[in-house]
Write a structure and sequence with these properties.
By secondary structure, this protein is α+β, with helices and mostly antiparallel strands. The two termini are 24 Å apart.
Length: 385
Amino acid sequence: MYRIALKMLFGDAARFFGIVMGVTLACFVISQQGAIFIGIMNRTTALITDMGYPDIWVMDPKVQYIDDVKPLQETELYRVRGVEGVGWASRLYKGMIRARLEDGTFQNCNLLGIEDSTLVGGPPGMVAGSLAELRRADAVIVDSVGASTRLARRPSGGSGRPVPLALGDILELNDKRGIVVGISRNTRTFQSQPTVYTTYTRALTFAPRERKSLSFVLVGAKPGEDLRALCRRITERTGLAAYTRDQFRWVTIGYYLKNTGIPINFGLAVSLGLLIGTVITGFMFYNFTLDNLRYLGTLKAMGAGDSTLLWMILLQAVVVGILGFGIGLGLASLVGWQNRNSPLAFSMPWQLVLVAGAAVVVICMLSAMLSMRRVVVLEPAVVFK
């Protein structure tokens, strides 16, 4: 019986193709749009995830997300170091600065000043040069994407490809010289602006003068220390906000989810894909069942029970769902792979695959239920009229 069900499904090539394409469309839209949404959210926390050394981030209590910098007094560093359970604490400067290029144009950059002695807070990896070179006079490290795009030297005459920054090149940062001693490998940020690393002391000379300059305090806990308990202890002793790396990451993501239209836009796109896929698949599958009612009625007249016929329809829905899910997920993955080096944000974790699979199950079950109802009420005698 199940072999007959598959022959019925594959025998009508046009309808079979239409049903599979309906499931494929829904799976593709859900997977692709969901992956872009997750990729964008990951970019909002790129600095946090790239900086793997600190266990805890300490900041002003009014800070809402990673780019919402509210400077602290330098003395707060020593107050944090005095809290029980703190193994070490380092300074971090984070701000915006304009880099003047050779052709006279300006480019906004993220300026990160890391601890002079330990260099804690440096880039996650190096493409060229080394982090230790940052101790040289006027030394800066530039991320590889920024060095090859926005900070690249424009070719003379306006023709040809830009020349990426290389070791030894000079940047003009706030009318001060910065010598490129390294090219780092960073995750793209939400604004996709170049990231420039230097020491904390040198960053203060690059940046405009302010009364307060300490952006964050990076904390490493002593071995065996409970991080959440240490965060509460730091908050109680200093009055500052203290988050673990994962907590600060979710605080930042939560800000973008609540205060931007990103989730609404992607939610509408995913909902539309789910709706269109359900309508197309349900309509095509229902028509497919109607066209095969005479065969199902014949089988019913020959003694096949309703349960057998329903399992046949369910098998057809499962086969269509598996094919549509595989093709849709494959197409979405192909789009992400082809744009892996482009500005497109794309991240497909296993949780998203489960969500897409669950959506395909819902679509196939709804489509099968419409057809099952028609089979249950079918009278075999109608077929022979």
